[in-house]
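Aim 2 progress update. The chain analyzed this quarter is reproduced below.
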Amino acid sequence: MVLPIVAYGHPVLKKRGIELEKEYANLDSLLENMWETMYNANGIGLAAPQVGLGVRLFLIDTIQMFEKEPEKGIKKTFINPEIIDEDGKLWSYEEGCLSIPHVRADVSRLSKIRISYFDENFKKHIEEYDDINARVIQHEYDHIEGKLFTEKLKPLKKRMLKRKLEAIRTGNVRTDYRMKFYRV
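Predicted structure tokens:
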């Protein structure tokens, strides 16, 4: 089932997620729905807060970014992840977010990460990623920490985006996927 994606301005996007218990009700269904939701919106990553759930869970599929070399990409579920280390060169890349449609901006991040997480079977992993795989993980990890990529932008760029962000927050935006807006 395709779930609505929570839009910029919703409080769940600003809260640090709580750990997901192994006995979390209907986890398999949730994961299936999140994958379907992400692909329906043409995304490469989706975090639980983006579907209104304040838990430490996200999934990514960067294989679709590597048309000629799909083996460079990854398709994984990350439950209760913790970034252990970030290293490498600081590099800038244009990012976007399903919760902030039609907004893209250059974000600087370190090129390598080491992360601990559980997969969908609650098997623990400690792995290292670099380049675009690391970046997508960092972006989704920020979501479960209650952070958005727009917070990493320079002040001038933030000011330039203010009107667009306000339009999203108030529901004055069109997308090809279902969205849920926060009403006070």
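The mean pLDDT is 96. The chain has one domain: 5-180. These observations will guide the mutagenesis experiments scheduled for the next reporting period.
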